[in-house]
Write a structure and sequence with these properties.
Layout (H helix, E strand, L loop, with lengths): L2 E9 L2 E10 L4 E6 L8 H12 L2 E11 L6 E3 L1 H17 L7 H6 L5 E3 L6 H45 L1 H24 L6 H14 L3 H19 L6 H21 L3 H22 L3
Parallel strand pairs: 3-4
Antiparallel strand pairs: 1-2, 2-4, 5-6
Helix pairs in contact: 1-4, 4-7, 4-9, 7-8, 8-9
């Protein structure tokens, strides 16, 4: 499920900004961007964020700016000159254009480094509190989105249930149409006087059994009920089970369509499929 949270804190002359965002993923994939002098704290930070966010492709960015500018960062002059000298020599020998050589060197490790090596515990505490606030907003965003998705799913499952209840009149009409069509065909091919009434009824019953959708309707109604029951449960993660239930709903709807033998029933089946596809999309975003 997608999510977003942002928090900002002032500490002394610094502004600490924490931004966390996520995309849907079945597994936890956490990427952290953190100032170099806090790298040794990254593991504890990673553990907290992973447990607090549970699952998703998550990006956590931490930015610390000083009111006095970027005085915390410095250029390693000796290393910069060494890179520039050696790269210029190689590029000259290969007759390669220098291009944005300076920008390329600045992106190399340790050319620009944080001059503050000691971790300020008070600042770290402020940063932790800011991360917690960002995660709180992030989870709140997810909760709001999940609530909206749940409401939409309920509405669409209800639409399928309502469509299911509208099938009965068309089923009865379908039986009469089939009876009349088969009788007409038999009269044309064997003659009205040559029709065996008992055999005719047997053939009708056999054919109607083949296209009977009573079991499919019962199972689909049960799946819809089961889906709502799972939505009602207070579980942090239920998207995977809902995905399985929606697959079973799809099987019954497809069978209804294959047995329809009626344009009216086919239209209802198409509506059901449309609702189910939207349900699957919603559930996929929560898995």
């Amino acid at each position: 499920m997608t999510g977003y949270g942002r928090a900002t804190t002032r500490f002394e002359d610094k502004t600490i900004t924490v931004e966390i965002r996520s995309l849907n993923s079945k597994f936890t994939d956490l990427r952290i961007k953190i100032p170099q002098n806090y790298k040794e704290k990254e593991q504890s930070l990673r553990k907290y964020v992973t447990e607090a966010t549970q699952r998703g492709k998550i990006d956590l960015a931490i930015d610390i700016k000083s009111a006095s500018g970027d005085s915390e960062y410095g250029l390693n002059n000796a290393l910069f000159k060494k890179y520039h000298r050696e790269l210029s020599q190689i590029m000259g020998e290969l007759e390669m254009p220098t291009g944005d050589l300076v920008q390329a060197i600045l992106r190399l490790p340790n050319v620009v480094s944080n001059t503050s090596e000691d971790i300020n515990e008070d600042e770290w505490t402020a940063l932790e509190n800011t991360v917690q606030e960002a995660v709180k907003k992030f989870n709140g965003f997810r909760l709001d989105e999940g609530t909206a998705m749940e409401t939409d799913c309920r509405k669409r499952v209800l639409n399928i249930s309502n469509d299911l209840e509208t099938l009965d009149p068309f089923e009865k009409k379908r039986v009469e149409v089939i009876r009349n069509r088969m009788l007409k065909n038999m009269e044309e091919y064997v003659g009205k006087d040559n029709i065996d009434a008992n055999r005719y009824e047997q053939e009708i019953l056999y054919y109607l059994e083949k296209i009977d959708v009573t079991e499919e309707k019962v199972r689909l109604a049960q799946h819809c009920k089961y889906f709502i029951e799972e939505l009602d449960k207070s579980l942090p993660q239920k998207g995977r089970k809902l995905s399985f239930i929606s697959q079973e709903m799809g099987r019954e709807i497809n069978t209804l369509g294959s047995k329809a033998n009626s344009s009216d029933i086919q239209r209802i089946v198409v509506r059901m499929k449309d609702e189910l596809e939207k349900i699957k999309e919603l559930v996929a975003n929560s898995v």
